[in-house]
């Protein structure tokens, strides 16, 4: 079945806008080809002149957006990490980190330079939402024990800066990291649960009403693009369903896609989000039994995001399409309970304790998923050409009306990645402790090493479990075992007790 006219139209505009915005990036040739393919598909069945008004509108909006955002803004403080030794670290919107002096007046939402000097105090809705989120998270810290509090903050407030590195590693390598990023899944669960309650109370248009009730809470998330995209999509779906209009979810996804490209920056998060949702919607289109469509919907998010994940990160857990629905059974009540804790400002002890218990179960389930499926973790450093070609083949199948076969290209890519893994074996490496124990190394580059000896200035216990295919050697303990000082001088031998104390104390953060 060929895609409907308005669906092809909206995606032509999406690819056109994205190609124009990414004209200087390596993605431009592939986005340009996607634009040409959708244009040819439309003109083969409909009149090409109908594309002129939409094209003119998109190009005009892009020009206006470029004009108004021509001047570079100073980076804003999106978060401030507080350490036990009273050090504070500001995280900027450009992902740079700035240590703040004691007594600094810097707040989230402020614009600062690389030395921590305030250039302009934060103002407006964005700064206000960031400050509200920051204060609410500090209330969360006092009400719910760590590390559950960090998971609640990630799932409801969009704060992932406080998540411990080992926990992030377990989520990433078990293929469950998407649970920690506010997305359509989170917004859908909250609106769905609230809509069900309103339906029991016989409130008219429960889904639309639930969507509107959630709207005032959106600023508390810090208004990340992922949350705004998810909310807008769910609102459009709710209005379309309850107004008894014939809606096409794929078309509504295209509308949100186009708005995202025109008004914001289309980043990695957006690409993963739209690919996952688009895969689900396409998997239930066309012919096939309910069982077949259910199976396709379960594996579609994994397969449709696979080209992007392999190109950017290189690491994927092949069993994530199994663990996701299993852990989802625990995640759903946990998210609802976390939402209730948030709306009650963490003042109701019963709700907080329930959230804590469910959060502990969620974390334990994630760790269990990793240990049960760590054999399925593969690392394949995929070239951009192959990843983009896979996505283009999916587009060709959709435009040709062969939606039933749309999962075949990414499935073949999956087979290719398994057979052509990027592996380094039997090597000896010497790494700084900060790199070896970092989330990025553990979840990406580190997974390429097999049966290697990795020496480091320090090794965290969780790092040994996450890099389980290698032998990690803590150089502090190496010196301890031989009874030598750092330079290996026998004349400088120290007592066992002194060396043990030194080995347990990491260098002070500064």
UniProtKB/TrEMBL annotation:
<feature type="transmembrane region" description="Helical">
    <location>
        <begin position="251"/>
        <end position="282"/>
    </location>
</feature>
<feature type="region of interest" description="Disordered">
    <location>
        <begin position="484"/>
        <end position="510"/>
    </location>
</feature>
<keyword id="KW-0812">Transmembrane</keyword>
<dbReference type="Pfam" id="PF03772">
    <property type="entry name" value="Competence"/>
</dbReference>
<feature type="domain" description="ComEC/Rec2-related protein">
    <location>
        <begin position="156"/>
        <end position="399"/>
    </location>
</feature>
<feature type="transmembrane region" description="Helical">
    <location>
        <begin position="210"/>
        <end position="239"/>
    </location>
</feature>
<feature type="transmembrane region" description="Helical">
    <location>
        <begin position="294"/>
        <end position="316"/>
    </location>
</feature>
<protein>
    <submittedName>
        <fullName>ComEC/Rec2-related protein</fullName>
    </submittedName>
</protein>
<feature type="transmembrane region" description="Helical">
    <location>
        <begin position="176"/>
        <end position="198"/>
    </location>
</feature>
<feature type="transmembrane region" description="Helical">
    <location>
        <begin position="382"/>
        <end position="400"/>
    </location>
</feature>
<keyword id="KW-1133">Transmembrane helix</keyword>
<keyword id="KW-1003">Cell membrane</keyword>
<dbReference type="InterPro" id="IPR052159">
    <property type="entry name" value="Competence_DNA_uptake"/>
</dbReference>
<dbReference type="InterPro" id="IPR004477">
    <property type="entry name" value="ComEC_N"/>
</dbReference>
<feature type="transmembrane region" description="Helical">
    <location>
        <begin position="51"/>
        <end position="69"/>
    </location>
</feature>
<keyword id="KW-0472">Membrane</keyword>
<feature type="transmembrane region" description="Helical">
    <location>
        <begin position="322"/>
        <end position="345"/>
    </location>
</feature>
<dbReference type="GO" id="GO:0005886">
    <property type="term" value="C:plasma membrane"/>
</dbReference>
């Amino acid at each position: 079945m060929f895609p409907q006219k308005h669906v092809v139209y909206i995606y032509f505009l999406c690819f056109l806008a994205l190609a124009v915005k990414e004209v200087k990036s390596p993605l431009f040739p592939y986005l340009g080809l996607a634009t040409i393919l959708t244009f040819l598909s439309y003109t083969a069945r409909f009149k090409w002149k109908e594309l002129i008004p939409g094209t003119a509108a998109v190009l005009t909006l892009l020009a206006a957006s470029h004009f108004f955002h021509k001047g570079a803004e100073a980076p804003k403080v999106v978060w401030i990490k507080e350490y036990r030794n009273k050090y504070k670290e500001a995280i900027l919107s450009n992902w740079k980190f700035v240590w703040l002096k004691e007594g600094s007046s810097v707040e989230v939402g402020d614009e600062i330079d690389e030395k921590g000097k305030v250039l302009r105090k934060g103002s407006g809705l964005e700064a206000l939402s960031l400050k509200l989120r920051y204060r609410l998270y500090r209330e969360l810290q006092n009400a719910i024990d760590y590390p559950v509090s960090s998971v609640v903050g990630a799932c409801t407030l969009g704060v992932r800066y406080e998540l411990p590195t080992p926990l992030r590693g377990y989520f990433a390598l078990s293929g469950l990291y998407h649970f920690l990023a506010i997305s359509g899944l989170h917004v859908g669960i909250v609106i769905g649960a609230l809509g069900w309650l309103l339906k029991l109370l016989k409130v008219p248009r429960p889904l639309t009403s639930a969507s509107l009730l959630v709207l005032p809470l959106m600023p508390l998330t810090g208004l990340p693009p992922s949350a705004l995209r998810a909310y807008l999509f769910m609102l459009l779906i709710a209005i379309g369903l309850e107004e008894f209009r014939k809606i096409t979810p794929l078309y509504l996804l295209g509308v949100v896609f186009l708005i995202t490209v025109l008004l914001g920056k289309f980043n990695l998060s957006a690409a993963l989000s739209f690919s996952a949702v688009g895969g689900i919607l396409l998997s239930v289109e066309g012919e096939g039994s309910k069982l077949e469509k259910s199976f396709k919907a379960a594996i579609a998010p994994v397969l449709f995001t696979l080209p992007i994940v392999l190109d950017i990160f290189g690491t994927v857990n092949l069993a994530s399409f199994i663990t996701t629905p299993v852990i989802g059974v625990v995640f759903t009540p946990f998210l609802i309970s976390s939402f209730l804790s948030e709306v009650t400002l963490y003042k109701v002890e019963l709700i907080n304790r329930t959230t804590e218990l469910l959060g502990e179960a969620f974390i334990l389930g994630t760790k269990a998923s990793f240990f049960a499926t760590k054999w399925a973790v593969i690392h394949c450093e995929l070239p951009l050409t192959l990843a983009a070609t896979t996505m283009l083949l999916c587009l060709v199948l959709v435009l040709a009306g062969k939606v039933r076969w749309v999962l075949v290209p990414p499935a073949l890519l999956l087979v290719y990645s398994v057979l052509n893994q990027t592996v380094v074996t039997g090597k000896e490496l010497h790494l700084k402790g900060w790199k070896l124990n970092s989330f990025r190394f553990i979840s990406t580059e580190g997974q390429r090493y097999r049966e290697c000896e990795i020496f480091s200035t320090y090794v965290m216990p969780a790092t040994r479990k996450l890099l389980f295919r290698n032998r990690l050697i803590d150089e502090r303990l190496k010196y301890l075992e031989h009874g030598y000082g750092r330079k290996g001088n026998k004349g400088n031998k120290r007592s066992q007790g002194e060396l043990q104390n030194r080995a347990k104390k990491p260098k002070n953060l500064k």
